[in-house]
Structure formats: C-alpha cells, structure tokens
Amino acid sequence: MDDPLDNGAGSVVTTSVNRYEEVAVAVTSAIATATEHSPLDLPPLAEVGVDPEALDLLFGSSADPSRNLTFHYAGYLVSLFGDGTLTVDHVDE
Description:
Number of helices: 2
Protein name: Halobacterial output domain-containing protein
Distance between the termini: 27 Å
Number of domains: 1
Strand content: 15-25%
Radius of gyration: 12 Å
C-alpha cells in the first residue's frame, strides 16, 4: 500500500485513521502493510478481543485528542491516539 504517512519515525507504519471510514479498516490496513499480507488474511479484530464499533466511538472523527489505546494484533503493537494517529510497531521480545 502506498500511503504517504507510512514513514513514521521508529514505527513500522504510521498513518491517520481519518483517511478511512472505519477505524477497524485503518488498523487492518496498517497491519496488512506491515506484514505485507492482504487484510483478508488477518483475523477479525473481534477475534483478538477488540470491538471494532468501540474503536469507531473512541477514535472516530469526534474523538477526544487526549485518548490513546495500545493493543497487540497479528504480532504487532497497535497504538491509536485521539488526534487520529495510528502507529504499528514491532513487539519487543
């Protein structure tokens, strides 16, 4: 995927959730970019304990900029910030 924001310092992928209709789509797209797999190859977020509708409520267009959430998904660390920033990082072992 060619995303001009996919060059965050130190992160595998950095993008804005505001570029997508749903936050869950932004997350799966970012993970797909990081893993170089199709988003369809990834497990649904609900299967890893993340409610996609809650992500939209917490980090959609009218999100509180002070919010942040971090969770593991498909072997990566996903961080969402209230300003719409989404980062995907390697998990330190």
